[in-house]
């Protein structure tokens, strides 16, 4: 027969059972007060815009206007071409910047210094007005024409945006290349790979993990920077909405319309950037975080399972 021994205190009396600890959460009154103030200010802002002298009905009327859609297409087109030019030239400049040849490295440094140190708006105007310096463009066996006919608004916009972007992409690519361990290059050279093949097959694929995120930001920033090409009379989204605003008198309304289109385009690019970063993170992260769609699916399944129980 076994007996259960009670724990006793110093005087032989049984000790009292420990009480359950009740955790009382700390009340953050400041958070609630700041939230209420923020919502009130936001409501006041919405009310002010709703009661302002703005013809909101004009925005949906012209949202899919042919001139506006043409401006959207041109904006997307010049953004893509400028980024392609900027990325391609940026990689070349990054390799030149890292070269052991002092002349090559100095040329790349001077290019980056100049194009990063002057505003994009000024560069666009310079390209558009270079006819004051060069009357003709003469590439002997290929092309010859007057500069005013050669430097169209599209070409001025492409050169102004693309060459400026190349300076920033050069620094991004240089940082990505330098992030790869030097042992990777030494191992590739030990296998007999040339410098160009090592860069193309070993270094750049690993550097993409560092290059892609800021490149996505640059792409989104380029989309918004295209609004400056109105200086060289290139027909983009802002040019289209500004023209409609001047003809109809709805200047402010058309600016809101342009802002809405820019928000839509940047949102689409942000989604693409998210999945592109996720793709290049596969080699460094074992368990990738769930995407928004995956989280929604999990929540729906968990909710249906609870209802079934």
How does this structure look, described?
70% of the residues lie in helices and 3% in strands. The protein contains twelve helices and two strands, in the order αααααββααααααα. Strands 1-2 form a two-stranded antiparallel sheet.
Structural class: mainly alpha
Inertia-based shape: flat
The proportion of residues in beta strands is under 5%
Q: Extract low-pLDDT stretches.
A: 1-5
Major sheet characteristics: 2 strands, antiparallel
Oligomer description: single chain
Task: Please state how the strands of the largest beta sheet are arranged side by side.
Answer: 1-2
Which sequence of SSEs, written as H and E, runs from N to C?
A: HHHHHEEHHHHHHH
Query: Span between N and C termini?
Result: 45 Å
Tell me the total number of β-strands: 2
Number of separate helices: 12
Radius of gyration from CA coordinates: 30 Å
- Measured as a percent range, the helix fraction is 55-70%
Summed over residues and divided by their number, the pLDDT gives a mean of 84
Summarize the structure.
By secondary structure, the protein is mostly helical.
Topology:
Elements lengths: L28 H23 L6 H5 L3 H32 L4 H16 L2 H9 L7 E4 L3 E4 H4 L2 H27 L2 H9 L4 H31 L11 H12 L2 H30 L11 H17 L1
Antiparallel strand pairs: 1-2
Helix pairs in contact: 3-4, 3-7, 3-9, 3-10, 4-7, 5-7, 7-9, 8-9, 9-11, 10-11
Keywords:
mainly alpha, single chain, disordered N terminus, 3% strand, 309 residues, two-stranded antiparallel sheet
